[in-house]
Structure formats: structure tokens, C-alpha cells
């Protein structure tokens, strides 16, 4: 025990010394860096591109902390010369001209006009050099992610001579992902060399890589290479890659399908509950979704500084608001129309019109955009050809959570038991002492509340507008019809499969035609199974 | 023919409706064409076109009532049949424009020239002939009705399921007609019509002719529907509405009866659409929108299901209210329409016609 | 070779292609004196066997009573005969030549099987007259129905049946306003209008008074002879009053068959009904 303490103490004491020792040569080197950086900047003043090229090399290799900034500015065309004394300056556009800063002294030179400045021009070759220069500097970056990206962006510039530098980098590199990138880079530079054995080895490494540069290189090889063995192998590698790309494209379609499907499930599941339990087609269901989405919007307006929190609060809030509206609809209209499904359909349609117009009057007919919290933007890059957008992944997971919760609720809770009892035999349930009217209202509230939750999810995917509900209602009906009435699993499977079918058909036939095809397919499907995927059987079905 | 009119026996409301129609066919054109403009009984061309439009709606409402009131099929897709009839007429009117379009192409309608099409699509051929167009006005909606009906009725899809299928049908068609590649003018639809059978659509006398044609079509629609509903087939249809399964067990092919009546109704709707288009001067994909179809149902609900004349009256009432409200309180119309849906289903299940019947019963 | 022979068959003008031959099932053939054969029929709903290897033969002109406890499969059996439910296995023949499993409800009805439901189902919005008119035998195609006009003979037969079922006074009454017993009678009247060869009658006397019951018994007995009748009934007194032969259905198959006395003394039947 004591020994451990002692060691820790020792390392604490010695660390500064060690650092000092390490830095001493670095200090010496610093002056050298500065020199080559200054020399590079000086060379930039030249009119000759050759010299500018040398300048870029010098600046890149200088290791000066300013070099990255300078290179980027040069690439972006923000590096100028002062017409008066040829000082190299960095320029930002500002009010009434350009804010100018000297590069070497970092001194502020105030705001100048265009005619006092002369742009340092670059050509394509220089642009390439700049890019690889930037990448090269990034290779030293402490963040392995930046390093890996740097290697990737260098791939295009790699030549047969880059091998040595890359090998060096690889021996120093600790991070696995960066090493893998480096291996790819080395393999590419081998391919560009002349050694057949190396080329074959390189092809082994590259086979299966999804980086676009690799694919281009391989294509070049298959047409330009002299050695038959290499050509053949390259072709093989290319095939492997293309098969992989295709497979990932399919995965992507599947993902989009699942994403759309999860939205459909969310939108349809409330409908399935109300339809299944009370036999009521609620045409205002879409508007209940819309109300949920607007609840999210309003909450966000109330707390613009806490987007994430407002979204979290929107879930229960939307459930309550939509659920409440649902209960009001049920108590005021629907309960008088039980046993007359067609009339209910018409009445609820009327309600949907009223709700739409109400929202239009309050919020204007324009679409409102709901801000997505930071963590839900962007995408999960699985590999260069497959990346999943975070908000869609989130909505998918969310839909599954809602489904599971609902499933458990209906299976385990006493409300669930009563709901199922009423849906199977209303008269019987009533005679067993179940307050059917209360169950109806609660079920309707539950279905509506879930519509509200669906609205929260939808607000993260599309704009929120008065027509939001309408665009989903027919699809939701299709899901319910397809999945079978009053069956949660049916809704789930129906929604997901319709979503996937839509996305699979889309590239083949276009989005609109895909939708039409799906509708036709469902009509045909109903031929075979009029009761949906999971029909109730026997005499009870009548 | 005689038996057609015999079916009107005892139908007081129907006879009143027909007499009013007959009066209108004479009075409205006369008031428009003969009566001088400064006279208080003069009817402007605008009003006459509006009335003609209402008559088309009334015919459409009767076709909806035939399937909903008498057969129990709540069709939420009758707008599709109406629009198809309208498009068929629109295609004829487009072909009539000839080289007077903006681009002056003698064969291709403007929108096709705009899309750089070189040839007339195959389904546009023949629409330069009026008789062919008239045939298509009836056949195209009928074919759609037969296909959808055959699939749906054979597999015994009923009730709300059927309603949703019909709604999906019109929705799918709307999506399809919005596409430029379909060859029906995409978003903008068909418009800028010039003349019909050589008569300018701008002239008052052509308008009057269209009004008379609409009134006659409505009368024909009413009498033929009345004939069907009074026949034993009509009784069987009512039996289907109330006890579909039972009718099967006494030997009727329920799906055939449904298919025939549904198809006939679709043809009437197509006819209404064909008369509607030259009077409003445009047909575009929004006619397919599910909202339109469901509005038709509410006309029938307001007027009274299973009364035929009630459907016609309902169409006139609701559309008059719509014209009035959309001009005076544009925002209120959807509130009003929504309220009509709710109130009629809750408090007036038999519609306006039901009110009259009740009063008669009291006397 | 093959193509040339098929070409020849195409050119053969006497040839009628199989798909053009109208698919008309043969007419009722009663040469063996048996009107209905149900053989080896089983049907299950969600694993529950409603009918289990059922065998039943009905003679031409016979009046057969079928009794059995609730859930024995009586209604399902009728559903199978009338084409509402398709069995999983087994065969059902009407006479010698008509395969019932290939026909749907209207076709079976047109072949001459009529059915009265357990719950009286008449067209409530229609008058008694229209109910009978709709049920009347004849061509029930769409066009014929549209143009149909009652001949004086048909009018007479409607009045005749209305008299027989005791609803002559109510002939213009809406069926919905009839009493329960009257609806039962109307339904039997509709059966008669169909003039079927085989009548399936599900609980005809439920909700009837003693007097009505007697008249029903009388009616059913007069019917047998020219028609074959299958009666499903719970009321034992009623069954005793009409039945010559009784079949006991239990758990989806025939448990016993014979006269009422034979059946009542059958040990198994007693066990089923009395539970030991």
C-alpha cells in the first residue's frame, strides 16, 4: 500500500522535470519553425505559382500554429497583399470594406477598401497542394477523429512517393481507426507504384473498402494495368466492393422503410385502438396528431432556451391535450352515434374540419417549423456509404417504446382488461359490471393521446401545419385495414411492412406511383383476407 | 319509357321537383336572354352559370344517394367518377381549341407543347369527336366503378372498410392526376376552353343551352333513379342495406346487384361532371380530393338519405350556403361545413326531407 | 408437332374451349332417394373443433330433427350446408350430383336449399308483402329483378302464403313492427315462397306461445313429404310432437340417431344431457 503512494508521489514530482526535458529541444526547434513559416509567407508574394507551391510546402512543414489558418484562408481566397507594402494579410468582410489583419505580426490594420488590397491567386494544382497540406497538418491533431478524416481527405492526393511518410505515421499512430485509414492510404500508394507483388498485397487490403477513392482507383487499375494478375484481382476486389455497396443500399432502403413504417405505426396505433374497441372510425384522428405537433410548437415557443427540455415535456403535454380533446369529442358527439359507424365517420370528419380551421385561425395557415434539439440533428455514419439520420433513428426507437408501453398497458392493467372485455362483447362486459361508457371515453382518450404523441414525433421530422394530420390519415387507415382491426401486432406489422414496401417501390416507380401501387396492393390484399392480417375467427367475427 | 314515368306515381315531392325543373329550363334562359338587363327579373349569365353548376351538383348528389341511401354503400369516392366525367369532357374541349392555343399547335394542347411532347398520347385520340367523348363520359367512370366494385363487393368488403377503400381510390387518382407525366395537364388541369360543338363558351346562348342540358340531365337522373328504387331491384337493394347476408340465402347475387347499381351511379356522376366542366371552365386534380367527395355525402345527409329529391335539395342548400359564406366570411365556411356534418348526423338523421315528412304526419 | 396439333385444335370449328363451357352444376338428382349427404366433415375455428368428422344423411321427403346441447355445432352445420362456412375437410352433396362445397350462398339457395335463422331475420323496413315477394322463387338476376312485375298467379301465391302463416291482415305492415312470433312465421313464409327442396329450420318455436307452437308443428309436418326438412330445436316437447327421426349432435359429430324414444333411452345421450 505504502509503496503505491510513494510511487504516485514520485511521479508527481518528476513529471514537471520530464516535461521540461522534453520541451527543451522543442524550444530550439521552435525558432526553426518560425523561420520556415516566415520564409513561406514571404514566398507567397511571388507571382509564380511554382514559388507559391514551395511556399505552401514550407508553411505546411513549418509546424507553426498559425499555418493551418493561413492555408485555409488561402484556399478560401481570403489572403491578400497590401498594395502599399506587399504585407500578407488575412481579410474578413466587414461594414464598409474589409477588416484586415497582418499575418506575421497578427496586428490589426483596420478596415480597408478593395482597391487597397490585392488577392493572392491560386490555381488548381495549388488548390490540391493546399488541401493535402491542410490534411497533413490535421494528421498531427490530438483528436483521432480529425486525424482519420485527414487521412481520408488526403487519399486523392496520394502518389507512389507517399509511402514512406505514411509508414512513419502508421508506426506512430496509436488509434486503431486511424491506422486502418492509413493502411488504406498505403495500399493506394502501392497501387500507384510499380511493384506487382505490392500491388497484389494492396488489393488484398483494399478489397471490401467502401471509400469512394478506392473504388475510383480500382476502376482505373482494371482498365490501365498491364499485369493480368493484378487486373484480375482488381476486378475481383471491385466486385466485392460493389456487392457490398449494393447490400448497404438495401440496408439503407430498409432503414428508410422502417423509419416511415414507425411513423405510420405511431399514427395508426391510436386509430387501431379506437376502431378496434369501439368500432368507431375517427376521421379526426389526423387532427389529433396535428394538435400534438402544435403542442410541441407552443411549448418550444414558451421556452426557446431549453429546446431539449421542451421536447421532453411535450410528450406528456401532447398526450394530455390530444387526449382531452378526444374525450370531449367522444362525450359530446360520438357516444350518441354508437352502432352507426357510417354516421360516426361523417360526424368525426366534420370535427376534423372544425379543428383544422381552428388551428388555422389561431396559428395562421402557414407551416411552422419546430426546432430539433442538437443531439437529434446530424447522422450516424456507419460507413462511407451508409449513414442514418439521428432524428429518424430516434423516432423509430420512440415508436417502439410507445408500442411496448401500450402493449403492456393493454395486457396487464385493469383498464386494458376492461378495454379488451368491452371490445369483445359489449353487452356481456356491461353485465359484468364494467362501466362501458367510462371505458369508451377512456379508450378514446387513450387513442387520441397517442395520436398526440405521434404528433410530437412528427414535428421532429416535418414542418407543423394545419394539414399535417390529413397527409397521414389515409395511410393510417391503410395500416389499420391491412393489419386488421383491434390488433396491436397487426398494426405494428402492417405499419412497418407498408413503410418498407413504400420505400422499396419508390426508387423503382417514383414516390407517387409507389403510393398508388400500395393502395392497389392493399385492395388486392383485402380480397384474400378481408379481415386484415390477423382476423378474428369463428362466429364472433360476424 | 312509360314505365319510367309510371314510377313517379305517388311521388309528390318528386313531381314538384320535376315541375320546378321544367319551369327553370324555360324561365332562367328567358330571363337571361330575353328580359332586358335593367329589369329586376333579369338573370345575369354569372347567376345562370352558378345555377347550372348547382344542378350538376344536384345530379351528383342523387347518384350518391342511390348508393348510400338505397344500397348502404357510403362512397367517399364519388368525386372520382365526377372528375373522370369532367376530364373526359375537358379533353374534348381542349381538342376543340385547336391551333388557337398560346403555342398555336394544331394538334397538341398547350401543356403538352410546354412539356416538349411530340405526339398526342394514345388516350387523347378520339376526343376530337363529340359522340366519342359522350361515350367516354359514361364509360370511364363506369369502368372504374366496375373494377373497384368487382374487387370490393366480391370479397364482401362492407361498411367503413368500403368507405375507406373508396376514399383511397379517389386519393390515389388525385395523386396520379397531379403528375405531369399522366398527360392530363398536371396541377393546372385542363382550362382555357374556347367552344363546344362550335358554339363559343363565352356566349350567353351557349350558357343557356348548358343550363337546359343540366336541368334535363337532372330530370333524367331523378326519374331513372326513381325507377330503379321503385322496382323489385330497388327493394332488394334496400334489403342489402339492412340485411345483406339474409338476401344471399334467398338466392340473390348481392355482389352483382351492388355492382350494377354502383356502376350506374358512377355513370350519373360522370355525366354530372361532364356538364359541370364547360360551365365552370376548368377541371383540375383537386376535384379528386377526398374532401370534395365527402362534401357530396353531406349534401345527401342534409337533404335526407334515401329520398332522392332530398339529395337534390340538400345539394342546392349546402352549395348556396357555401357560395354565400365563402364570399361574406371566407374563414367561416369550414367551420360551417364541419358544424353541418356534426349537427345533421346528431339531430337531423333524416335530413330536411325528414322534417317535411314529420310535418305531414302531424297533419 | 405439338404446336401443329394445338393449331389444328384452334382451327377446329366444332371445338368449344373448356373455359367457354358454362360452369353450370347439374340439376338435383334424387334417384337414390337421399337428398343430402354430409360425409367426414370437420371444421375448426382457432383450434376449436366446431364440427368433428360429421356424417349425416337426409332422405328425400324426410323430416329430421336435430337436437344437441349448446355448442354442439348445430348452427355451424347449417352454415356449411348453406355455403356460409367452408369445412376444412369432408364432402357435402345435395342429391347425387351437386357438390355444395363448390357453390356459394345464392347458388345453393337457387338449387333449392332454404334456411330460417335462429334469430328471426326478416327485412324490417319492408312490408310483409315485399318480404314474401323478394323471397319468391324465380330468376333473381339483376336485369330480371329490375324489370320484374308480379303476375296475377304470383300475387295469388303471395296471398296464399300470407294466409297460411296467418299474416294476411298484416300484409301491408312493416315487418319490423311484427311480434317476435310473427317474424318467425314470416321467415317460414319466405322459405315457402322460395319453394325449396330442402328446408333448414333453426329453432322455429323460440319465443312462441303454446298455440303458435302447435300451428308451427302442424305446418312443418304438412311440409315434409313434398319437401325435406331439417329442424334444429331445443324444445323437447315440440320435437316429440313432430319428429319421426331424431339425430343427436354432440361436440361436432352425431352421437345417436333413431326415434325420439330410442334416443331418449340411449345411455350416452342421457349422459351428455344430464351429465352422468
Walkthrough of the structure:
The complex is a heterotrimer of chains A (about 550), B (about 375) and C (about 280). Chain A contains 20 helices and 7 strands. Chain A is an alpha+beta fold. Among the domains of chain A are: about 140-225, no CATH class; about 250-535, ABC transporter involved in vitamin B12 uptake, BtuC, CATH 1.10.3470. In chain A, strands 4-3-2-1-5 form a 5-stranded antiparallel beta sheet. The longest helix of chain A has about 50 residues, at about 230-280. Chain A is elongated, with a radius of gyration of 33 Å. Chain A starts with a helix and ends in a 14-residue tail after the last helix. Chain B has about 375 residues and is mainly α. Chain B has 14 helices and 4 strands. Chain B has a two-stranded antiparallel ribbon with strand order 1-4. Chain B starts with a helix and ends with a helix. The relative contact order of chain B is 0.18. In chain C, the strands form 2 sheets. Chain C has a 6-stranded mixed beta sheet, with helices on both faces. The termini of chain C are far apart. The chains are: A alpha+beta (about 550), B mainly alpha (about 375), C alpha/beta (about 280). The interface of A and B includes residues 351 and 512 of A.
Amino acid at each position: 500500500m505504502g509503496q503505491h503512494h510513494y510511487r504516485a508521489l514520485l511521479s508527481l514530482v518528476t513529471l514537471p522535470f520530464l516535461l521540461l526535458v522534453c520541451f527543451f529541444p522543442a524550444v530550439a526547434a521552435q525558432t526553426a519553425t518560425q523561420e520556415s513559416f516566415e520564409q513561406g509567407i514571404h514566398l507567397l508574394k511571388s507571382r509564380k505559382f511554382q514559388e507559391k507551391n514551395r511556399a505552401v510546402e514550407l508553411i505546411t512543414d513549418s509546424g507553426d500554429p498559425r499555418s493551418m489558418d493561413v492555408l485555409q484562408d488561402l484556399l478560401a481566397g481570403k489572403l491578400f497583399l497590401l498594395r502599399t507594402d506587399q504585407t500578407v494579410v488575412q481579410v474578413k468582410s466587414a461594414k464598409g470594406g474589409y477588416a484586415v489583419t497582418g499575418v506575421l505580426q497578427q496586428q490589426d490594420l483596420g478596415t480597408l477598401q478593395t482597391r487597397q488590397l490585392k488577392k493572392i491567386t491560386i490555381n488548381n494544382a495549388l488548390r490540391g497542394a493546399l488541401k493535402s497540406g491542410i490534411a497533413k497538418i490535421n494528421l498531427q491533431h490530438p483528436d483521432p477523429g480529425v486525424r482519420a478524416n485527414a487521412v481520408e481527405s488526403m487519399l486523392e492526393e496520394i502518389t507512389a512517393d507517399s509511402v514512406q511518410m505514411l509508414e512513419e505515421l502508421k508506426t506512430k499512430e496509436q488509434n486503431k481507426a486511424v491506422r486502418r485509414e492509413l493502411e488504406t492510404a498505403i495500399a493506394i500508394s502501392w497501387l500507384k507504384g510499380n511493384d506487382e507483388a505490392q500491388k497484389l498485397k494492396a488489393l488484398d487490403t483494399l478489397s471490401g473498402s467502401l471509400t469512394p477513392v478506392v473504388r475510383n482507383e480500382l476502376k482505373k487499375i482494371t482498365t490501365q494495368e498491364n499485369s493480368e494478375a493484378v487486373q484480375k484481382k482488381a476486378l475481383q476486389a471491385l466486385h466485392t466492393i460493389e456487392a457490398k455497396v449494393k447490400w448497404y443500399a438495401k440496408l439503407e432502403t430498409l432503414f428508410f422503410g422502417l423509419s416511415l413504417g414507425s411513423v405510420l405505426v405511431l399514427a395508426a396505433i391510436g386509430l387501431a385502438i379506437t376502431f378496434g374497441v369501439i368500432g368507431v372510425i375517427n376521421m379526426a384522428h389526423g387532427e389529433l396528431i396535428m394538435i400534438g405537433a402544435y403542442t410541441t410548437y407552443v411549448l418550444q415557443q414558451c421556452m426557446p432556451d431549453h429546446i431539449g427540455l421542451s421536447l421532453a415535456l411535450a410528450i406528456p403535454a401532447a398526450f394530455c391535450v390530444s387526449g382531452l380533446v378526444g374525450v370531449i369529442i367522444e362525450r359530446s358527439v360520438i357516444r350518441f352515434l354508437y352502432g352507426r359507424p357510417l354516421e360516426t365517420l361523417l360526424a368525426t370528419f366534420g370535427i376534423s374540419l372544425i379543428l383544422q380551421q381552428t388551428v388555422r385561425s389561431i396559428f395562421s395557415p402557414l407551416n411552422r417549423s419546430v426546432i430539433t434539439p442538437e443531439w437529434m440533428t446530424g447522422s450516424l455514419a456507419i460507413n462511407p456509404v451508409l449513414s442514418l439520420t439521428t432524428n429518424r433513428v430516434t423516432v423509430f426507437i420512440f415508436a417502439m417504446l410507445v408500442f411496448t408501453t401500450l402493449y403492456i398497458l393493454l395486457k396487464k392493467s385493469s383498464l386494458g382488461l376492461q378495454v379488451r372485455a368491452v371490445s369483445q362483447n359489449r353487452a356481456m362486459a356491461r353485465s359484468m359490471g364494467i362501466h362501458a361508457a367510462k371505458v369508451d371515453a377512456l379508450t378514446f382518450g387513450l387513442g387520441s393521446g397517442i395520436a398526440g404523441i405521434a404528433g410530437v414525433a412528427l414535428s421532429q421530422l416535418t414542418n407543423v401545419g394545419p394539414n399535417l394530420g390529413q397527409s397521414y390519415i389515409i395511410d393510417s387507415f391503410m395500416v389499420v385495414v391491412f393489419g386488421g382491426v383491434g390488433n396491436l401486432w397487426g398494426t405494428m406489422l402492417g405499419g412497418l411492412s407498408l413503410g418498407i414496401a413504400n420505400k422499396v417501390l419508390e426508387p423503382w416507380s417514383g414516390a407517387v406511383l409507389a403510393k398508388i401501387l400500395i393502395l392497389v396492393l392493399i385492395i388486392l390484399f383485402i380480397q384474400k383476407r378481408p379481415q386484415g392480417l390477423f382476423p378474428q375467427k369463428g362466429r364472433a367475427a360476424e | 319509357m312509360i314505365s319510367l314515368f309510371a314510377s313517379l306515381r305517388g311521388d309528390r315531392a318528386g313531381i314538384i321537383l320535376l315541375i320546378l325543373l321544367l319551369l327553370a329550363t324555360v324561365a332562367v334562359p328567358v330571363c337571361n336572354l330575353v328580359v332586358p338587363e335593367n329589369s329586376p327579373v333579369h338573370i345575369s349569365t354569372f347567376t345562370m352559370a352558378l345555377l347550372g353548376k348547382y344542378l350538376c351538383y344536384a345530379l351528383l348528389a342523387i347518384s350518391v344517394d342511390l348508393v348510400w341511401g338505397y344500397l348502404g354503400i357510403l362512397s367517399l369516392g364519388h368525386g372520382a367518377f365526377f372528375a373522370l366525367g369532367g376530364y373526359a369532357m375537358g379533353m374534348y374541349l381542349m381538342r376543340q381549341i385547336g391551333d388557337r392555343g398560346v403555342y398555336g399547335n394544331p394538334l397538341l394542347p398547350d401543356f403538352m407543347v410546354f412539356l416538349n411532347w411530340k405526339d398526342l398520347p394514345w388516350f387523347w385520340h378520339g376526343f376530337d369527336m363529340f359522340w366519342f367523348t359522350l361515350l367516354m363520359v359514361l364509360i370511364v367512370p363506369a369502368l372504374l366503378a366496375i373494377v373497384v366494385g368487382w374487387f370490393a363487393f366480391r370479397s364482401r368488403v362492407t361498411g367503413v372498410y368500403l368507405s375507406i377503400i373508396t376514399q383511397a381510390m379517389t386519393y390515389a387518382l388525385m395523386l396520379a392526376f397531379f403528375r405531369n407525366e399522366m398527360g392530363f395537364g398536371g396541377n393546372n388541369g385542363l382550362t382555357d376552353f374556347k367552344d363546344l360543338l362550335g358554339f363559343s363558351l363565352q356566349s350567353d346562348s351557349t350558357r343557356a343551352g348548358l343550363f337546359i342540358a343540366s336541368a334535363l340531365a337532372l330530370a333524367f337522373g331523378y326519374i331513372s333513379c326513381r325507377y330503379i328504387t321503385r322496382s323489385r331491384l330497388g327493394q332488394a337493394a334496400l334489403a342489402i342495406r339492412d340485411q345483406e347476408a339474409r338476401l344471399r340465402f334467398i338466392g340473390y347475387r348481392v355482389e352483382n346487384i351492388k355492382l350494377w347499381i354502383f356502376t350506374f351511379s358512377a355513370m350519373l356522376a360522370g355525366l354530372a361532371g361532364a356538364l359541370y366542366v364547360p360551365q365552370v371552365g376548368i377541371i383540375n386534380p383537386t376535384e379528386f380530393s377526398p374532401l370534395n367527395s365527402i362534401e357530396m355525402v353531406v349534401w345527401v345527409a342534409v337533404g335526407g338519405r334515401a329520398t332522392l329529391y332530398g339529395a337534390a335539395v340538400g345539394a342546392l342548400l349546402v352549395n348556396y350556403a357555401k357560395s354565400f359564406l365563402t364570399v361574406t366570411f371566407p374563414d367561416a365556411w369550414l367551420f360551417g361545413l364541419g358544424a353541418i356534418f356534426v349537427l345533421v348526423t346528431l339531430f337531423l338523421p333524416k335530413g330536411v326531407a325528414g322534417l317535411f315528412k314529420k310535418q305531414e304526419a302531424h297533419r | 408437332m405439338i404446336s401443329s396439333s394445338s393449331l389444328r385444335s384452334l382451327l377446329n370449328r366444332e371445338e368449344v374451349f373448356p373455359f367457354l363451357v358454362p360452369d353450370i352444376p347439374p340439376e338435383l338428382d334424387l334417384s337414390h332417394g337421399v337428398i343430402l349427404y354430409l360425409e367426414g366433415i370437420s371444421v375448426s375455428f382457432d383450434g376449436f373443433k366446431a364440427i368433428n368428422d360429421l356424417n349425416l344423411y337426409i332422405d328425400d321427403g324426410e323430416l329430421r330433427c336435430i337436437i344437441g346441447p349448446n355448442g354442439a355445432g348445430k348452427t355451424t352445420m347449417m352454415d356449411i350446408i348453406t355455403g356460409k362456412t367452408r369445412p376444412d375437410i369432408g364432402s357435402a352433396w345435395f342429391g347425387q350430383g351437386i357438390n355444395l362445397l363448390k357453390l356459394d350462398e345464392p347458388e345453393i339457395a337457387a338449387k333449392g336449399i332454404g334456411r330460417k335463422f335462429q334469430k328471426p331475420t326478416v327485412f324490417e323496413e319492408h312490408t310483409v308483402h315485399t318480404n314474401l315477394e323478394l323471397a319468391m322463387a324465380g330468376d333473381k338476376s339483376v336485369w330480371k329483378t329490375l324489370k320484374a312485375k308480379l303476375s296475377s298467379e304470383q300475387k295469388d301465391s303471395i296471398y296464399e302464403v300470407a294466409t297460411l302463416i296467418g299474416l294476411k291482415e298484416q300484409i301491408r305492415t312493416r315487418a319490423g313492427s311484427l311480434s317476435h312470433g310473427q317474424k318467425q312465421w314470416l321467415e317460414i313464409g319466405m322459405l315457402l315462397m322460395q319453394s325449396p327442396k330442402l328446408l333448414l329450420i333453426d329453432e322455429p318455436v323460440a319465443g312462441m306461445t303454446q298455440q303458435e307452437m302447435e300451428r308451427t308443428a302442424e305446418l312443418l309436418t304438412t311440409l315434409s313429404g313434398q319437401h325435406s326438412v331439417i329442424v334444429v330445436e331445443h324444445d323437447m316437447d315440440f320435437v316429440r310432437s313432430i319428429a319421426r327421426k331424431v339425430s343427436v349432435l354432440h361436440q361436432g359429430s352425431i352421437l345417436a340417431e333413431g326415434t325420439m324414444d330410442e334416443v331418449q333411452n340411449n345411455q350416452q345421450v342421457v349422459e351428455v344431457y344430464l351429465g352422468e
